[in-house]
## 1
Amino acid sequence: AQSVTQPDIHITVSEGASLELRCNYSYGATPYLFWYVQSPGQGLQLLLKYFSGDTLVQGIKGFEAEFKRSQSSFNLRKPSVHWSDAAEYFCAVGARSSASKIIFGSGTRLSIRP
Amino acid sequence: DAGVIQSPRHEVTEMGQEVTLRCKPISGHDYLFWYRQTMMRGLELLIYFNNNVPIDDSGMPEDRFSAKMPNASFSTLKIQPSEPRDSAVYFCASSLGGGVETQYFGPGTRLLVL
């Protein structure tokens, strides 16, 4: 069965600084990978996803993520964060064999320092 | 489009009472998902439907939980009888196609069982 680990529970970065949120997955084959964002009191919104092809994926709001098979990682990056990026970020993995069942990580809460 | 609609947004009930959560997916979407989010367990998939048919209910915690989708535009998640440990935020999501297709989340129902 697939699983996903987000090792950082809470990260604080200064506005304008770069950001990298870590995600490691466990799956025997190439998985589907997702990053979702959840603002306080809101549902989740998809930032980006990877299923094949180019390992560097561009998403909304200036985010990108890179799939590294050798490291079983799918880290999320943004070159310059804005105060509005403060939210909870979830990495998720889906198995190609059980198409629609997505397993979510525990989330990383991002705070922005003015 | 109005997005995924959930009602009620907040529900406070007493232990032993029946609770019914409602979801209206995005029109035209053929997949519907119910998730539960708690601090302890994170975001868990409870059940999902394809074309109104339950496909995987392995995440439903126990027989007290049941979900139905009588038509393409409506689904319910029922808890009977409710217990304090059911307190959580329940999300409904829908997608057009399964697998890697984007799931669109509703705003969630915050349930508190006293």
## 2
Amino acid sequence: QQQVKQSPQSLIVQKGGISIINCAYENTAFDYFPWYQQFPGKGPALLIAIRPDVSEKKEGRFTISFNKSAKQFSLHIMDSQPGDSATYFCAAKLNRDDKIIFGKGTRLHILP
Amino acid sequence: DGGITQSPKYLFRKEGQNVTLSCEQNLNHDAMYWYRQDPGQGLRLIYYSQIVNDFQKGDIAEGYSVSREKKESFPLTVTSAQKNPTAFYLCASRGQGWNSPLHFGNGTRLTVT
């Protein structure tokens, strides 16, 4: 099954709090799991990515946690800021292919 | 500046007409993609191309057609067979390497009435 299920659909977090977005997949043929950030009227841009043999990757305030056995991965945004308000998409790439599929997105709003 | 150019930003068509969306890249990327974005639906893959003169259907290819005659260009035609063509269309390209990211254009919003 080539799907990536993302939750929640929307999220409101206080400034300074932790934002957590979750994704799950079924196909074990995925070999790359990126997260993209999209602002209104713009195309998405890569935020952070992880490969399945790594359990965690951190870049600044953004961390991906990856649980291969559970087929789940999540994005954590520490010390969330109003400028982080955007739509976030998880994605997955098929091994030995260029096909990349996306979750349905999470609209994040950080309260000032 | 290297990047993806989609034109026009807004496009209006009457029902029953075919319309072609432009996508050009100067990143020298082999792979190019078309996604459709609808509220609450995320990004759904229409077509992708890994090399010139070759392309594969994505998950929602019905009612769409593409061509890849040049490495830099990957135009998408929305045909009259597409039942719900009004949407935000995003083009992207990707370099070589399993972990190369997608580079997106800023999209074309198509409205069909």
